[in-house]
Amino acid sequence: MVEGWFGGEGDAFRLLGTRCSACAAVFFPREDLHCRNPRCAGGELSEVPLSRRGRVWSYTDGRYRPPSPYVTDPELPWEPYALIAVELAAERIVVLGQGVPGLSVADLAVGMEVEVVPGVLHEDPQTVWTTWQWRPTTGVGA
Description:
Blueprint: E1 6-7, E2 14-20, E3 26-27, E4 45-49, E5 53-62, E6 81-88, E7 93-99, E8 113-123, E9 128-136
Parallel strand pairs: 7-9
Antiparallel strand pairs: 1-2, 2-3, 2-4, 5-6, 5-8, 6-7, 8-9
């Protein structure tokens, strides 16, 4: 979906953030120009792979078709999806993303462990738009 935000295959799939060399703050989406930490005078930013696993911090469901530029076929029925905010403890950040297909808010609980996996946002005969999704490490969707 957005170049440079994730990469890798299988167990090597990771979200990619950046870390400031001066204050060690981690950013996702990545920051390539300057440190976003207002208390930092700034340092060099380097790409870092983020943790594959985190804990559900909050969640909700997407029950309506978002407006453009979201890519979707208006001829197909809308399928609700789980939207999950995941805390990555090592990076001290929260990352938002969709749950894997078939996962509903009834399957989620604050504090449960999830892992990042590649997913398909949309596809047509010419293009597959990829993204990241969150999948529980145990139970539904695992």
